[in-house]
Automatic annotation (TrEMBL), chain B:
Oligomeric form and interacting partners: The cytochrome bc1 complex is composed of a cytochrome b (QcrB), the Rieske iron-sulfur protein (QcrA) and a diheme cytochrome c (QcrC) subunit.
Keyword Zinc-finger recorded: no
UniProt KW keywords: Cell membrane, Electron transport, Heme, Iron, Membrane, Metal-binding, Repeat, Respiratory chain, Signal, Translocase, Transmembrane, Transmembrane helix, Transport
Transmembrane domains' residue ranges: 237-256
Subcellular location as annotated: Cell membrane
Protein's UniProt name: Cytochrome bc1 complex cytochrome c subunit
Amino acid sequence: MSENQNPQGPSRDVARHDGDGTVAQTDRFVDPGVPEHHPRLADVDPKAAKRNERIIALLFAISCLGTIGSVVAYFAVRPDGTTPGVRMSTVLLGVAIAVSLFGIGFAAVHWAKTLMSAKEYTEERHSSSSSEEVRGAVQQQFKDGLEDSGIARRPVLKGAVVSALALFPLTIAVPLVSSVGGDWNVGSFRHTIWKKGTRLAYDPSGRLIKASDLTVGSVAHVIPDVPAEERESHEWITEKSKAVVLLVRMDPRDHKRDHREGASYDGIVAYSKICTHVGCPVALYEQQTHHLLCPCHQSTFDVADGAKVVFGPAKRPLPQLPITVDDEGYLVAEDDFNEPIGPSYWERLK
Amino acid sequence: MKALAARRHHRLAPVVLLLLALLVTGGVYAALAPSPAQADTASTADIETGKKLFQANCATCHGPNAEGTTEAPSLVGVGAAAVDFQVSTGRMPMQMNGPQAEAKPRQMDEEQTAALAAYVASLGAGPAIPTDEQVDGSKGDPANGMALFRTNCAMCHNAVGAGGALSEGKFAPPLWDTSGRNVYQAMLTGPQSMPVFNDANITPDEKRDIIAFLDEQDQGSAGGLTLGSLGPVSEGLWAWIIGIGLIIGGAVWIGAKSS
């Protein structure tokens, strides 16, 4: 390491002269080298140095106060279970820890900038490879080792070691791939638990829905009616996420057509809530325009017109659940969806 | 004045002006901002007074007998709850045509609102104004209210009721400053873009649970700054502008030479 000197000297560059095609070296620009060293105020003025020392000491002292403050805050303000109490505790702890850490950081940087050596150093680059002798010796060691193992003369051992090493990764790869892969039965995407006669129920209460309960302009978020204990099961989450339906009652005069012929009942239509784009729950229903918005990518479906796409990236209308009423006046499904709900997948049309 | 004029080229002058402008804007807003509506039940209101008020203020769009025109819907059968919601939040009488009628300082006082509600209720049966008991959030179950809010309301009004955008300039308003009575009436009557959640869908008790859940939101978040509870937009703005700005500032400070 050498101080304040440029190891390269003035830079030389290569330039081509036009016409005769000769190549000549020119000095395109001169390497300015390291800028001239200017002493800082603290280097020449002992008073300034002293002042900076005091500032640094003060910053460290602030950090100490922050640490003490965080310990005090931890014991003095315990989260009492109320929202303002928890907020007070976390905010005080956070502020105290921030003061403590920033105090140390600011003090260290300020120390380095004002009081530590400000001389400019030049560090020269060296070749990073080892010397020829060392490299030769290592190569020889490998060759000797290979010779010693006799692998060239014993092909059985060669095959055995390669097989053992090549097979070992299976012990990790097979369980990993098998458990990551999960359920490969794509047929389950084709159907939901809706079937002929399943009653419609309000989500999340599970109360059944009578057609007469729905006034014009109403929407209801609907799940299939299953026994209450089944709604506690783990499988229910999967089934519910496929079967959720949005039920809308509109003035029959506003209703232009069904996506699935004859699937509505007296202005009441039921559409899958799973977007055909990437499967977000489509549920922002504008009562006046009968438009149904997806919150993720703004796909917009016209519920009055077979839930066809009127805006956004979705490609297909929402699948419609055919509904009717049973003898007691409750809304029931006439069948499952007749197409897979949600976004596209490779096997969808098979 | 002269001393003031002499300093108009001072480098801090724009900052001072900006602060003054902000103060004036804030002051004017605070003076004009709508105050929460409180009205008594309309049981004793005079239907005749209501009819006169209606013909003076509403009939241009809704027709002389509230039968509706091409401009505005019929009010026969919308009930007192719809009138009380629209008029007490200042949405009606409507100021101008737009994507939706927005809440503004109410134009009718409580008596006039009650009279209008009584008149419209007399035209046809419709949902009545809820009682104070029905809209008292302290009697509801906020946990059940959260489950109901998540299923029925959160997609438009945001998970904690901060509001959100709809299509073509329409929006679902924030619910934090909305009175329990107006929240109840909105569910019952489905104003504008909002669908109806009648008592069969969300029972009166469940509506009160939702009000209780919204009341809980007044305490804010336990996690410190909510940035408006608007999710990635305000959080991203904060991280990119303030967070990265501070990091760049720190890097510049560390790299700068001391004088």
